[in-house]
Structure formats: structure tokens, C-alpha cells
Amino acid sequence: MFRVKATVIDVLGDESKYPCHFKYKIGDEIIWNGAELKGRICPSILGALSQKMQILYTAGPRYKEPGYYHTFWYVPPSVHDESMKK
């Protein structure tokens, strides 16, 4: 199993004048293990985080450039099996 950790390393701008509306502090973490996200997730960073999650999903058993590798490209075509009909 894998774990992906996103950590707040910097807050841009003057934090006292323009504080984070989600109250993030340097060192706060969001952890994704493929099944669940742990931590508080601000909607403003959800877009950037989901792009990284998509890259990991796309990687399959090995990393390739995003959009290049999907597991379904390398599986044999499905054949309709009448015995599986309900």
C-alpha cells in the first residue's frame, strides 16, 4: 500500500493581514492512502490535490507521464459470456 502526504510548507503574503480562511498553519498535513483522505481539506487546494491524486491513479504499477498510461489500455478486450447472464 502507498501513502501520499501533502504538507503546508509556506503561506504566501502577510499572514497577519490576510490569514488563511481555513486556519491552515505551517506543518499541517493531509494524507491519502488510496482509500481515504485524512486531515482537513480546504476547497481552495482540493483542485491541486486532486491533480496529484490523478497522477498517482494513472501511474498504475509504474509511473509514466500523466495521460499516457491507463491500466485499461493493456488489458485484453472483454468478451460477452452468456453463462454470466443473470
Defining key terms:
elongated, 3 strands, alpha+beta, 12% strand, single chain
The stretches of 5 or more residues where confidence is low (pLDDT under 50) are none
**Reading side by side through the largest sheet, how are the strands ordered?**
1-2-3
Work out the strand percent: 5-15%
**Structural class estimated from helices and strands:** alpha+beta
The backbone outline, from C-alpha atoms, is: elongated
Number of domains: 1
| Secondary structure: helix percent | 10-25%
Mean pLDDT across every amino acid position = 76
Intertermini distance: 35 Å
**Number of E strands:** 3
Based on CA atoms alone, the radius of gyration comes out at 19 Å
What can you tell me about this protein's structure?
By secondary structure, the chain is α+β, with helices and mostly antiparallel strands. It has one domain (4-84). Helix content is 20%, strand content 12%. The chain contains 1 helix and 3 strands; from the N terminus they run E-E-E-H. It has one helix spanning 43-59, and strands at 4-7, 29-32, 37-38. A 3-stranded antiparallel sheet has the order 1-2-3, with no helix packed on it. Strand 2 (29-32) and strand 3 (37-38) form a beta hairpin. The longest helix has 17 residues, at 43-59. The protein is elongated, with a radius of gyration of 19 Å. It starts with a strand and ends in a 27-residue tail after the last helix. The mean pLDDT is 76.
